[in-house]
């Protein structure tokens, strides 16, 4: 895709209608003024010539017309004609030049140069048209870049699905062949083989569920039903619920609350619960070996929004990968190939759910020290706050 930018050349800010009117006046009245001035001069010269010369014959009249005074008259007529030609040329160029540039820009767009910018800067009618044209080309370029980005994302999605489905399918196929060929010749082996097949099937089901949720969120087929919720009390409930499973995984969890114990936000609690589950699941999957895991959740209260930060002490993420962790099928650890180690979809789902709430999600972290996921949510209005307090 070509992109052609030109430095803008200055154009007149006078409107085309005004310019044509002024030029026409000049084309008419300037030669007339010159003619009047020339006529006065011509008349004085005639009087002066007649007073000093006797006119007796036609040849004397011819000498007057074709003599010096005649040349003055011819000069006046010539200036009149040249003035009309010059002003007509100026007027036509003022209109045709930007139109030619506009036509050239259309041809450039037709030839695939969607970033072409017309070098005409003016506030007149044509300048306004050129400005609209340049804005259109800029939008076309942005749309083309977005289309290419979406195409690249689609290819990555297909590759990710093929890669992540191949692993459990290969496992299922291998263990079924082992059962069929009698390799699992004891009840214990058969049970282990069946358990592995079942686990692989669950992995596939989980990935397909994540894909379905992602697709529904992207296409808007999932409704986000929000209500005013005290986010401080809600997070305390979630931490209490997560604590048992986290302790089984060797993790401790701490919640740091703000000074205010009542911060109201509009939330779909079920959807937001999934956001927290996905984030904490990632912390467990990317924990350091032989080191007790920690998850620290902090709620920060601001004037118009609240930020929930979820930090772990895991393996962390390189700075170059931080901006990509919310991309579909992205894995910070490329060595992880099992779906149960993360399909690379969970954080994409988190991002879409948070954005559906009108919020923002981003990540910070340091390699070998841990990762922190930040979620910013807008506070509810005063009326919604009163409703939430009444319900509570």
Description:
With 392 residues, the protein is an alpha/beta fold. The strands form 3 sheets. A 5-stranded mixed beta sheet has the order 4-6-7-9-8. The chain is elongated and about 140 Å long.
In short:
With about 400 residues, the protein is of the alpha/beta class. Helices cover about 60% and strands about 15% of the residues.
The percent range for strand residues is 5-15%
Low-confidence stretches: 1-13, 334-342
Instruction: Give the helix level as a range of percent.
Output: 55-70%
Give the neighbour order of strands across the main sheet: 4-6-7-9-8
| Average pLDDT, all residues | 76
In N-to-C order, the SSE pattern is EHHHEHHEHEEHEEHHEEH
Provide the structure class. Answer: alpha/beta
Main sheet makeup: 5 strands, mixed
Radius of gyration: 41 Å
How far is the first residue's CA from the last residue's CA?
A: 58 Å
Topology, number of strands: 9
Total helices: the number is 10
Shape: elongated
